[in-house]
Amino acid sequence: MPIYEYKCTDCHRKFSRLVGSIDAPPPPCKYCSSSHVARLISRFARHKSEEDTLDGLAEKLETADESNPTALRQMAKEMSNELGEEISDEEIESILEGDDTGSGDEV
To answer: Which element (helix H / strand E) includes 36?
Structure first.
């Protein structure tokens, strides 16, 4: 059963409802009980495959400004988030400074 979002045209508040059928009439506003509601187009999420994620990261790396440390820090954080691995600010700084002593995880 889909969850639809509605907006009341009387009180201008938004609310969500679990609806049993696509053809079901819109429910009354849960705040003011008005029957003047409009169904909204909801945002949705698209799951990216691991390959799509890696391709996106590779594109960002190709266009990265290597002379801008702030941009590189931001990219390192984005990459760690996308890959689901936490990386500390200290580790980022160590990488940017070229310190090879790191955590020993390097290959």
So the answer is: none
Residue 105 lies in a domain: no
Q: Is residue 26 part of a domain?
A: yes
Residue 14 forms beta bridges with which residues? 7
Say whether both 31 and 54 belong to one domain: no
List the one residue out of 77, 69, 60 whose CA is nearest residue 97: 69
CB atoms within 10 A of CB 80: 15
Overall average pLDDT of the 5-22 stretch: 89
Residue 99 has what pLDDT? 55
pTM: 0.40
In a domain, 68, yes or no: yes
- pLDDT tens per residue, range 49-59: 778 888 888 88
Over the range 41-65, which residues count as b (16 or more CB within 10 Å of their CB) and which as e? Answer: eeeeeeeeeeeeeeeeeeeeeeeee
The amino acid sitting at 46 is R
Could you tell me if 27 and 65 lie in one domain?
Answer: no
